[in-house]
Specification:
The protein is of the alpha+beta class and 239 residues long. Helix content is 47%, strand content 13%. It contains eleven helices and five strands. The strands form two sheets. It has a three-stranded antiparallel beta sheet with strand order 1-5-4. Strands 2-3 form a two-stranded antiparallel sheet. α1 packs across α6 and α2 packs across α8. The longest helix has 15 residues. The protein is globular and about 55 Å long. The termini are far apart. 36% of the residues are buried. The N terminus and C terminus are likely disordered.
């Protein structure tokens, strides 16, 4: 492991995604999160149709896709901040109702900037197939920012994935839900928000961030209103 520590492997089994799963998830996340690019800017690769600025933002969005219990907790945070916002509790309940938090969970290590996993292997698959590119922004002689570009072929491929493999519909919906949760918010702000969760912040550096499923289920039961469920705010929006 690139940041070196496998100490938690002895504590509990860690589910690892395959390279194909990582690449598909990353492509769908880029498609959901990418903002329009200035095609005339010199740093923009030929054929780019969107960009996700900073590795921090991409890593933190990926954490919520890979950890449904933490995402459900964030929905409950938003509900507490705005109880009139429709569908938040029901969406959290839907996530927590079955085995999704276990079946869809792929743990991430806590790095000094929060949840982290190397993206280069999955990104290499996308680059090789002409679907995405990564560019560096330099400050003096060091890299100060990684930017991730979605290419036109990448957008086309992402649009066709679900029709070819309907089982990927969950990833399509979930990546859009996560992006909608923090639309317009920068990577550092997302990092700071995730650090407000005690179990996340208290994970030792180099250890896997633990599940919080049962804590969130208990919180849901305490918050859940007695009236009929409203329309989920984070339903996937066709593009």
């Amino acid at each position: 492991m690139s940041i070196g520590l496998a100490n938690d492997m002895a504590e509990f089994p860690v589910r690892r995604a395959t390279l194909w799963q990582d690449a598909v998830r990353l492509l769908l996340l880029l498609d959901a999160a990418a903002k329009p690019v200035d095609a005339d800017a010199p740093e923009v690769p030929v054929g780019a149709v969107g960009v996700v600025y900073t590795q921090v933002r991409l890593q933190k969005l990926d954490f919520w896709v890979r950890n449904p219990d933490y995402l459900a907790n964030e929905l409950l945070n938003d509900y507490e901040a705005d109880p009139e916002s429709p569908g938040l509790v029901d969406e959290a309940a839907r996530i927590l109702a079955g085995q999704e938090p276990d079946l869809r969970r792929f743990p991430m290590l806590r790095h000094r900037f929060g949840a982290f996993e190397e993206l280069d292997n999955a990104l290499a698959v996308l680059v090789e197939k002409g679907l995405a590119r990564k560019r560096h922004r330099l400050g003096g002689e060091r890299i100060i920012q990684h930017n991730y570009y979605l290419l036109e072929q990448g957008r086309t491929t992402a649009a066709g994935l679900v029709s070819e493999a309907p089982a990927l519909q969950w990833y399509l919906e979930r990546t859009r839900m996560v992006v909608n949760l923090v639309d317009g918010v920068g990577g550092t702000q997302i990092k700071d928000r995730q650090y407000l969760q005690r179990d996340y912040a208290g994970t030792p550096i180099g250890s896997y961030i633990p599940a919080i499923t049962e804590q969130v289920r208990a919180r849901l039961e305490a918050l859940r209103p007695s009236d009929a469920p409203g329309q989920a705010r984070f339903a996937a929006v066709p593009q």
